[in-house]
Amino acid sequence: MILGSQISVDTIFTDTYNCVIQARCLLMKPAYITSGGIPMADALVSNAGDTAQHTSCDQCGRPAGKGRSYAFKKPVPEGALDQGTATKCTWCAIKHQPMLRRSLIVAFVVGTILTLLNQGDVLFSGSWNSALYWKVPLTYCVPFCVATYGALSNSRR
To answer: Domain range spanning residue 130?
Structure first.
């Protein structure tokens, strides 16, 4: 009984070993196995490269490859389940209205707090100098840019 199971295990091991050796030999030799007139190795490489090119922007139709496409949730009508995601190119992602609205709210809240902390004494004393005319808007621009960059980084595909 033990001898019979030992032979079957040895046979399975030998068959597996031979398959691995044959696979190694195929990898070392140029691939002459063809698929539609194209060598198999070239067909695999070209098919892998084509998958990144098939992604396009759902809004404008521009091609959006890996690292240049962003996924946003589609709006859900009342009473419906999740509608999936919309893929957008960089330009359309920057103009995505819900993201811009959130970034503006963050910029308003954080910018106001920073302005009061940094320039509050000058503002309340009433002695405005010319530097405040560029410092205050810049104080609001920084949180807007940070919030927008964070949202885009989070949605990058």
So the answer is: 96-155
